Amino acid sequence: MNPFWSMSTSSTRKRPETEEKALVSELKNSPPRTAPKKQLPSIPKNAVPMTKPASPALSAQSTNGTHASYGPFYLEYSLLAEFTLVVKQKLPGVYVQPSYQSALMWFGVIFIRHGLYQDGVFKFTVYIPDNYPDGDCPRLVFDLPIFHPLVDPVSGELDVKRAFAKWRRNHNHIWQILMYARRVFYKIDTTSPLNPEAAVLYEKDIQLFKSKVVDSVRLCSSRLFDPPKIEDPYAISFSPWNPAIHDEAREKMLTQKKKEEDQQSKSMQVSGLSWVKPGSVQPFSKEEKTLPT
């Protein structure tokens, strides 16, 4: 029972007179009491000590030592935002598709429509660091090594760090890497090449360089229908023309394009008064109808 409840003021029991005098004298002689210090309850036996949870930054650190400071959910959101930016940019001749297995891997293809690499169809894969966007620059590797000064002749990797020496968060985006990968086939740069042979031929023997470029384009075209380099349901693959399948898809795309063009032309039509009536110099001219009086 709680002692405070037992000392109720409504109690009718009276103390003896001698007991009251002894209690008063004891209170006078005893020193003033201070409030007792608060103490934690004793630790029970076999108790497991509780540890302070680690900070999110430390808990998000992967086992391989890579610091993913934003966690998997924020990383997925960031990559989804990056892919939305790619779609909005509408890069000419460049198409990408995130992998089914990992959002950190994107499959793509570049179509070159003019210049030295005309008719080139180059498939590639973009590898994104797992601590994106605070990590290093994403890598772009072609499925087949292309004869180009900035493409490694063995691995097929494009020298992306040339344009993005330091990846800056909220400033650099993946669509810029894709645009750079397209631009290198139209504007050749030979400084500090990954393929010294291609750089020397471009500077000293342009005809031989063009010949090797044509051979490289033909090789990529001949291997276009090969299975994807990485087994993934979303990997970009090509198949020969099949009228039973592709004619219907082509018709749908052309029909949709025609509808969009018709809607755009209708929206550009302006209805209303002409600025100047033919045969007159009066602006906003129109025959006014007189109301009967």
Q: Please, could you describe this protein's structure?
A:
The chain is of the alpha+beta class. It has a domain at 70-223: Ubiquitin Conjugating Enzyme, CATH 3.10.110.10. The protein has helices at residues 3-6, 17-29, 56-59, 71-89, 174-183, 196-204, 206-222, 243-268; strands at 94-98, 105-111, 121-127, 139-142. A 4-stranded antiparallel sheet has the order 1-2-3-4. The longest helix has 26 residues, at 243-268. The relative contact order is 0.09. Residues 1-12 and 46-70 have low confidence and may be disordered. InterPro entries: Ub_conjugating_enzyme (IPR050113), UBC (IPR000608), UBQ-conjugating_enzyme/RWD (IPR016135).
Topology:
Layout: H1 3-6, H2 17-29, H3 56-59, H4 71-89, E1 94-98, E2 105-111, E3 121-127, E4 139-142, H5 174-183, H6 196-204, H7 206-222, H8 243-268
Antiparallel strand pairs: 1-2, 2-3, 3-4
Helix pairs in contact: 6-7
